[in-house]
Write a structure and sequence with these properties.
Number of helices: 22
Structural class: mainly alpha
CATH architecture of the largest domain: Orthogonal Bundle
Bound molecules: fe (ii) ion
CATH superfamily of the largest domain: Hypothetical protein af1432
Number of strands: 2
Distance between the termini: 36 Å
Radius of gyration: 22 Å
Largest sheet: 2 strands, antiparallel
CATH topology of the largest domain: Hypothetical protein af1432
Number of domains: 2
Strand order of the largest sheet: 1-2
Length: 397
């Protein structure tokens, strides 16, 4: 199918800003703002549309390793975006994680070196043209975006860029200084407009993609979700794999198979919007905390429902906590409203959770997990046939 990759990436990368919200307690639109500034610089440097597409993709994804790089203990000690980015682990994790992204021209180490200084004083000591051009652009865009969202005046940002001139590629630096003289440049990155200004600058890259290729993007986000909580570190991956086995068992066609894998990857996307202080809380949650946790499938739906071609995926991913008797959340849908594939994901989610270690209990055996699921079938909560089939598919695993 013809697929708008930009649209997909903008929707999904919004969730990376949620990870910042967790740390900074406000939403900075950081990824989009870095992409916007990078795109403006690229435009000033007369970059081709193909390069612009890749640069914007790299920019939107540049901090995808932040979650994976934060140790649980340090997560709550960070006060500013500056300290959040000042650790080389997020560059290493981020570079590893984008391996599967379908760039038009893949370039090595763009994310790895996005905080390198032109004079060689950065994390890895790489200097000048050894640093990929995209990284040199993202480094300056990032420097500006961070200070902008900390509320600095435009004049102070420019002053700081000038003081640290040695960090930046002179050509990129000149382009940035030229842009900074126009009020419109700054207005375009306002929270209210940044998404629209970015979209208007993006070359519309519509590519012939099948769902298997789109899965190479959703996989990136499933790893970001899994990195969010140390207690559920392989939950999305496990669900995606098990969903794959089940789809093969039911002999689903290729499109449905990959759509289900994507839905499985993204089902907990909304958890990126839920604070770790609630997600990882030992002990009982109060009413408000329960409500916040239960909102995550709703966020998942809101993030992906506008992506064309994601209609089925949205349903299956967002219904994973609904129950056949209407007692699930957040919609309270009932059997008539839950199709077979939604029921599959709900069952796999339960099975996967039960067979994973949790801080308060060890993983359960296959038999114990299926026993609990059979009780849930008795109570009219989940699909009997899927439970039965999962018993035979995963018996020996
Ligand atoms: Fe960064
Ligand atoms: Fe950044
Ligand atoms: Fe969930």
């Amino acid at each position: 199918m013809l697929f708008n990759v930009n649209e997909l990436l903008i929707s999904l990368s919004k969730t990376l800003d949620f990870s910042e919200k967790e740390v900074l307690h406000n939403n900075t639109n950081h990824g989009m703002r870095v992409a916007y500034i990078s795109a403006r610089i690229a435009h000033a440097l007369s970059m081709s549309d193909r390069h612009l597409f890749d640069l914007i993709s790299y920019s939107l994804l540049h901090d995808n390793g932040v979650m994976a790089s934060l140790q649980n203990s340090s997560r709550f000690q960070l006060e500013t975006e500056i300290s959040m980015e000042m650790n080389s682990a997020h560059c290493i994790e981020g570079e590893k994680n984008i391996e599967t992204f379908p760039f038009l021209n893949r370039q090595q180490n763009v994310i790895l070196y996005h905080h390198e200084h032109y004079d060689g004083s950065g994390f890895f000591g790489i200097s000048g043209n050894q640093i990929p051009l995209y990284s040199r652009i993202i480094a300056l865009a990032d420097y500006v975006a961070i200070r902008y969202s900390l509320g600095w005046d435009c004049d102070d940002i420019v002053k700081s860029v000038k003081q640290n001139r040695r960090f930046f590629d002179p050509v990129v630096y000149d382009a940035m200084l030229e842009l900074s003289g126009h009020l419109e440049f700054w207005l375009g990155m306002d929270d209210m407009f940044v998404k629209n200004t970015l979209i208007s600058m993006m070359p519309r890259v519509i590519r012939e993609f099948n769902y298997k290729q789109i899965r190479s993007i959703s996989q990136i986000f499933s790893r970001v979700i899994d990195a969010k909580s140390p207690f559920t570190g392989s939950h999305s991956r496990g669900i995606s794999e098990k969903t794959g086995f089940i789809c093969q068992y039911y002999e689903f066609d290729d499109t449905t198979y990959w759509q289900m894998r994507i839905a499985a990857d993204l089902h907990d996307l909304g958890k990126l919007a839920v604070s770790n202080s609630i997600l990882d809380k030992p002990g009982k949650l109060n009413k408000k905390e329960t409500m916040i946790i239960q909102s995550h499938p709703f966020y998942t739906r809101k993030i992906i429902e506008t992506i064309k071609g994601f209609e089925n995926i949205t349903e299956w991913a967002s219904n994973h906590h609904e129950k056949l008797n209407g007692s699930g959340y957040p919609y309270g849908l009932n059997a008539n409203q839950l199709d077979f594939n939604s029921r599959i994901l709900a069952c796999v989610d339960i099975y996967q959770a039960l067979t994973e270690d949790r801080p308060y209990r060890k993983r359960m055996s296959h038999g114990a997990a299926i026993k609990i699921m059979q009780n849930m079938v008795q109570d009219g909560l989940i699909e009997p046939s899927v439970t039965e089939d999962m018993d035979s598919i995963f018996k020996d695993s």
